[in-house]
Structure formats: C-alpha cells, structure tokens
Design a protein that fits this description.
Layout: E1 17-32, H1 44-53, E2 56-58, H2 72-79, H3 83-90, E3 108-113, E4 118-122, E5 130-142, E6 145-160, H4 161-170, E7 191-195, E8 201-204, H5 210-220, H6 227-233, E9 237-238, E10 248-251, E11 259-265, H7 273-280, H8 296-299, H9 301-305, E12 306-307, E13 321-324, E14 328-334, H10 338-341, H11 347-382, H12 388-411, H13 421-434, H14 436-486, H15 498-521, H16 523-534, H17 540-554
Parallel strand pairs: 9-10, 11-14
Antiparallel strand pairs: 1-6, 1-10, 1-11, 2-3, 3-5, 4-5, 4-7, 5-6, 7-8, 12-13, 13-14
Amino acid sequence: MIAPSTDAPLSDQPIPQVREFRQILVWPLQLLPASHAQSSRVPREQLHKSLCAGAWQPYVSAFSGDQQRFSERHYKEFVSFLPHAQRFLYGESRSAGDAPGLHSESALSSFRRSDIAQLRITLHEGEPALLLQVERVELCLLDDVDVALLQVELHAHDLPLSIAHDLLYRFGRAYPTGWDEDGNGIHNALLVEWLDSHGAVLASSDADQRDKFLDFAVQHRAPTISSHWAFLLQPLELEPTTQTEVLRFRQIEYHRMPLLAYLALDNPRALSDEHWVRLGLVATLHPNEALPRQSPEVREFEARYCYDRYWSNSAAGPNTRMLCSGRALLVVGDANSGFFLDAERGMLAQFRHQYRLLFLVNHFHRATLLLYSQLLADAMQRLDVRSPESIRRFKRRIRAGFEAFLRFTHRYWFHELSETPHLQAVYRLCATRLGNDTLYAEIKAEIREMVDYLDSDAQRRQSTTVMRLTVVTTLSLVGTVATGFLGMNIFADAEAPLLQRSLFFLSALAGTGLITAYAVVKSKRLADLLDVLSDESLRTGERFAAIFGSWRRKH
C-alpha cells in the first residue's frame, strides 16, 4: 500500500540515470483479405508472398536445426516453457532421421525488416532529439487466427529516468488523441523518424497534420494511423482503403501499444514510492499529472502490480523488481549487477526472450478473444430475420466462429506457461491484469448461447416438419386402407389400350398429389383438428362444436 509521501517533489530530487534502456512494443492487429476476395480468411500463402515482395523477409530462428546458431541461451529459453508451450512457440519435435526442413513448423511464424537501423525521436518542442538503436522490427503471424503482432525493440544508454519515463509514455501511439494550441499532439512525441544504417530518413511521423486525422475520421468513422507506422506495416494497408488488391489490417484495441521496458539503474533502491507508481502505470498515467493517491490503483499498487520475488531492497541484492499492469511490463534492476546486464544468461536475456514471449502470448490471447467478440457482434448486426438468405449466412458465420473458437481453445489457450516460478507468476499477473480469463468466459458463454439458439431453432423446425408429415400420413392412411380393402379392380381396364391406362394413372397421380399437397398446406389446421378429436375430456357434442366453431372463424 502506498502511504502519503513525505518525500520532496520529484522535480527537486536527484534524477536517477538509466544506464541501459530497452523498450519493446507489441501491437496486435487484425488481418483482413483483399476487398474483392470471396473468403473472409486471409490466405497464408498470399500473405507471405505479399510481405516478401516488400521489405519483410521470413525469419529463420535458431530452432530451425542449425547447430551453429543454437547456443546455450536458446536452450535456456526453450526449457523455460512447458511442453505444450514449446510446441506452440517452436514447433513439433522431429525424428532423428528427418531432414532439417521436414519437421512440423511452429504455429508462430515471423517476418523481419532489416532496413530500419535507428529511431530519432523528439519528445517536446525545443528539446534535442534522442537517437535509439532499433534491435528488432518483427511481424508475428499465427495459424488459424487472423491476428498479427508487430514488435519493435529499441535500446539506448545513459538516459535520465525522467526522459526514459517520458519516452515510454509517448512513443508507441498509433495516432494523436488531440492537439494543443500550437497544433502538436498532446500525448504523442513531437517527431518520430525511422533511419537506415547511413542515417537517412526512411519515414517520419505526421502528428501535426491535424486535418488529415479529422478528415479521415469524419469520412470513415474510424481513426487513421500516423505515417511512420503506416510505412512500417507496408505492404499491408489500413482498413478502409481504396486499394482493392492489397491485404488489409485493422486495429483491435486502444491506440496505445502494449509495451515491455528494461531499466538498469545505478541505485534502484533510491527510487521513491511515487517513482515506482509512475513507472508501473506508465501506460495510463501522464508524467505531468498529479498522482491520484486516493485511487485504488495507487493505494493498492504493490499488491496489484508488483512482483517482488527478487526485490530485496538491500545493498546485498538482488535488486530486481517487476511491474506489470497488463498493458505494460517493466523490469527494473541494478546496473552494477553483472547478472542483471548479462545478455546471454542473465536478466537481460530473459527479458528479451522469455518475458517478451509470455507478454506476447497474453496479448495474443486478448486480441483473439476480442476478435471473436467482434465477429459475434458483426453477425448479429447483419442478421435480418425477414430474409432467409440472411438467416442462412448468420448460421454459417456462427458455426464457423464456434469451430474457430474450439481450435483456439484446444491449440492456444492455456493457463500454465512455465514451471519456472517467476515466469509463471508474471504470466498469470499479466493475464489477470488484462482480464483474459473473464473475457474468455464471456466469449465462450456468448458463443454457447448462439449455438444453443441455432440448435433449438433447428429442433423446432424439425419438430414442425415431423408434425406436418405425421398429419399427412394419418390422413393418407384412410385412403390407403380404403383402396386396399376395395382392391385394384374398381375399373376393369386391364385390357384397355395403353393410352387409356396411362391417362387413368396420371389422373390418379394428379388427384393424389393435389390431396397430399392440400393436406401439407393445411397440416397445422388439420393437426389442431386431430388434437380436438383426440381430446378425451370433450364430449361428442363439444368436439363437433369446436370443429364447426373453428370452421366458422376461418370463414
């Protein structure tokens, strides 16, 4: 619990230095086929071909069978996860005699860009630009689900904590949410530029183009994204688009991208309670906003958002603290600790790989569940109960959604990711803060309700059909018995010409068909008549009165 602070204001305190800074953005996106495509699913072969035609290239991981690339760091990452998570992340096992390319691939495939080497970002007007190295620009795709996860990893050295905090807050916004009097975005960075290895500008942000964002929103009733993010995702185009031949994408959640951060400080024990709260709530709390001390998020901050297994808060250490709000996962530790800075066996290696993957899985779960929720809402919106074709489309979409949800449940949904205590604890903390279990239960109940409705509607229709056929069969029984009793020689035309016999046959066939058709048309009224006749509680006179009363009401 955060008690009222007696510390001096943050602006009056010595500014801690971040010796090693890393930020990883994870942006879930919905993939859509080209607008002229007949299928609602994105063809994987077309998607891969389209990405490779641009700046993206398939990423071959160290788990592809190349022993020269596989190191102890990869092994430690692999064994950190449980077998079902290993199969999901790295693919199925392979026999000793199989060729390297013949094993079952992972459900998770990746594409990377190598043309972007640096990020130059200006946070505020009049401030010098920051230059960060771009370690990773990766697009992760998953089988059976039209969800892509864009990952961007940055790193820098020797930043004041206030600058690092502001960078975490402002970088990673898909579009500006408003503008100040000078026309600058109020929450995003002033200027963002992607640079190549020679320092040339590849793309820059356009948050100051207020009219662009306003015109797009009023025309399409959806926000557009800043130009530097649009450049990053090419050749995919934001939906809606006028280009009919390209694959498209759509935002799934809030414009603020989920993030991971790694901060190596000289003395993390010197951070005040307010520092910790502002770091933990970096995705939602503005750096210049007064700390809402009466908010439950602040008063119960340590219980809700902190994982302190390795936070001893002593000179002996270890001094590593993890903060997780669901939308942000921060690992803060001691820059003087060799283990914390070790990129092969230490905490830095775990942050870039194990923690990144568990954060990725949690946001993949949430994005997919939100996708199914949108599918159900869209199916209900398009349903027109007066149109048989609309009803048939509705049934097909619901049953297809139920099938996809079953595949997701049995292939991707799991509560345990690792037997390593700190990994599993952070994984569950992140899932809890995102509300994934609650969201899953809601989507499951909604799908079950719709499937139950479809099943009950099908049973109702089937019962009505059986009732009608039963009535027709009952009435046909009278004619069948009568003709069987009288025999087939009412008309002695066995020796008649073929034409005369054919005419007799066709007349009998037509008469029988008309009587049967009339019985089917009136089957409901006839069923009511049979109910009256079979009601033993009525006397004979009452039965005839009910029958004739029904006939008079009809006419």
